[in-house]
# Entry
Amino acid sequence: MLILDGKIASAAIKERLKKEVEIITGSGKRPPHLAAILVGNNGASETYVASKVKQCAEIGFVSTLIRLEETVSEEILLKHIHDLNTNDSVDGILVQLPLPKHITEQKVIEAIHPAKDVDGFHPVSAGKLVQGLPTFIPATPYGIMLMLEHYNVETKGKNAVVIGRSNIVGRPMSILLSSNIKYGNCTVTICHSHTYNLDELCSKADIVVAALGRPEFVKAHMVKEGAIVIDVGITRVEDASAKKGFRIKGDVDYAAVAPKTSAITPVPGGVGLMTIAGLLKNTLQAYRQSH
Ligand code: GUN
# Structure
């Protein structure tokens, strides 16, 4: 069983990105610049955004973090996005989700200029992905594709089951795996809350991508011997014995499932780290497209 290690794969990608930035700045140009907006004090969002900012610095990107109160109006948030859209020194914009209930997420997603949409959530980016055109791929599915590439995992012709149909992970993942690309060409089934025979579909799959956000949902009986399992879950589960009072759990019952697989991503230390690598690659792409 091969552990698809996000630490190793993301470090290799970041090393390459760092060298590219050195070449850019060595030629007298400014480095790529990512602007992140964080609304409110959601603990998990704080952690993710802090990690994105830190990893920008590690590879020589500039980053700006705009923190807004939980009570900020939609109008003011949209004004910040507009300012970043028209700021030539900013290449990529991300607004960390989820947003407070009084703000319409879709409006915010659509306010980001598609040329700076490094999260790939804008309908223009999503539409291009569906049509196989060059675009910004949402960071998590992009990170998973980079992981498959790093470990040269053969996907062609395989049956893949994607559990979850979110715009952030499940749906774009299903499109990528079914696309005619190097780590695609799978026959893909998308499972969701209305799927009748999820256990059976899953147990026949060569590749399982679990992206539903339910800790340890995928059990051993749902996984075929020798399958490849990609765990996208990162749920905080209360645990008084843990230093922070919680533990991060994936969507896969790792201890029981891992021995049956040919390759599996751990949680933590798997897909989560690759997500940031995907975002950084998108930011460099945005930079290159505007220069
Ligand atoms: N919330 C959960 N995942 C993501 C992500 O990839 N990008 C943003 N902006 N918010 C998220």
